[in-house]
Amino acid sequence: MSMDELMDFDEVMDLYEPVLGLEVHVELNTASKMFCSCSTAFGAEPNSQTCPVCLGLPGALPVVNAKAVESAIRIGLALNCSIADWCRFARKNYFYPDMTKNFQTSQYDEPLCFDGSVDIEVDQQTYTIPIERAHMEEDAGKSVHRGSSTGRITGAAYSLMDYNRAGVPLIEIVTRPVMGTGAAAPEVARAYVTFLRDMIRALGVSDVRMEQGSLRCDANVSLMPKGSTTLGTRTETKNVNSLRSIAKALRYEICRQGAILARGGTVTQETRHWHEDGAYTSAGRSKEQAEDYRYFPEPDLVPVAPSRTWVDELRATIPLNPTMRRAALREAWGFTENQMRDAVAAQAVDLIEATIEAGCSPQAAAKWWMTELTRRANADGLGLDELPITGAQVAQVQELVDEGLINDKVARQVFEAVLAGDGAPRAIVESRGLAMVADTSALQEAVDAVIADNPDVAAKIRDGKVQAVGALIGAVMGRMSGKADAAKVRELILETLTEGN
């Protein structure tokens, strides 16, 4: 548990202005690594995707991945960045066990993309996030700590190294200090990273899965006294692995730093680790300055000089930014702001769109993805887009409902079968005999039997207590295994009980 003293968040806001700085690392989905031909596939056997180049063995020479450069330019353009006419790589020198070369090939004073900005909205207020740079680099390997309940090195019996990730192409997107957010700072940070995730997914250059590490956020925050122009000392909370935790970690750090300053203390510039289980941060290491890394130009790589023609061609491939796209879709679909917000939070917008394009109404598409299919995804510990069902299949299920062949209750059975891999929706309905009973005589037979079994309820309905009909409808639906039109059943019950009255 954290032993930090915390100041009330509102009290901190009365005294200080939070200043954010966000560094987001995006793993690109190229087939091969940044400087070699090794595979980047996630989840492979440890150390099975390595070679002399990504292991940094003597004499191995790197070659720049052209697809990674293209993806970096497209990200920069989507962030409204300028694209350098000429840039080069640098060696960032440091030693960690997960960096076999003792340096990281990155970019320093000559990034590929620079001077951008994006607007994000929180609670109907727009905030401009200034982008300092989006530069290319390679990822490090992964330390695996065994025997620790938290997965961290503390308490571990021993550590292992998996270098499969070493050399995977990374784009690091760095903001300038973000000011003027006030009490909204934690939610602004969350909204910004959400924007990046949605934008990069739309570009198709990364799967941006935070749980797999292909999208990682280092969240910097400092406190500046109200009325001052002097920035405070920042801390950097490393590798926060969910959007919700970004806001929680920043809020915690604001309250922790506020308590330190209120008692006359000094904030230490350092990295902090976010503990999801206890919702607190703990000290990591003293934060290095740029000069500590002893940057110098990478001698084994030629400069990157994208032509203006190529950049303009790539500019034409940039999709509508997520905020504008969602606004257009919300209007086209007739969704409320809350409906669209919920769909965005569930990462269901693209799935709903695919279902609508397959012929489903917007409201029906949202209903299935946001209820039944979300329930299934949560139960299986999957993202919605990981479910083995397509928008076209969801539209086919709704088509069967619209045709009157099945009702919503039976539709849920059809979804279960589709998710189990049992075939197409219409074929499942036919093979399992799930179609609604359309034979009026069969429905009337069931109605008569239920009325005979429930004389007291039938008497109430005859006496004018029509609300009691629900009990009989339920009984009829049970007899028909749910394969009956409830409205038609209600009609038959009332007709039968009011005959002769």
Please give a handful of descriptors for the protein shown.
single chain; 501 residues; alpha+beta; Arc Repressor Mutant, subunit A; 3 domains; 3-stranded antiparallel sheet; 17 helices; 14 strands; 39% helix; elongated
Could you explain how this protein is built, in words?
The protein has 501 residues and is an alpha+beta fold. It folds into three domains: 306 residues, no CATH class; 113 residues, no CATH class; 59 residues, Arc Repressor Mutant, subunit A (Orthogonal Bundle). Helix content is 39%, strand content 19%. It is built from 17 helices and 14 strands. The strands form three sheets. A nine-stranded mixed sheet has the order 2-5-6-9-1-10-11-12-13. Strands 4-3-14 form a three-stranded antiparallel sheet, with no helix packed on it. Strand 12 and strand 13 form a beta hairpin. The protein is elongated and about 95 Å long. The termini are far apart. The mean pLDDT is 89.
Low-confidence stretches: none
- Judged by helices, strands and strand pairing, the structural class is alpha+beta
Number of domains: 3
Give the percentage of residues in beta strands. 15-25%
**What is the molecular shape?**
elongated
Helix content: 25-40%
- How does the major sheet shape up? 9 strands, mixed
- Count of individual helical segments: 17
Strand arrangement across the biggest beta sheet: 2-5-6-9-1-10-11-12-13
What distance lies between the first and last C-alpha atoms, to the nearest angstrom?
73 Å
The mean pLDDT is: 89
The Cα radius of gyration reads 29 Å
Number of strands: 14
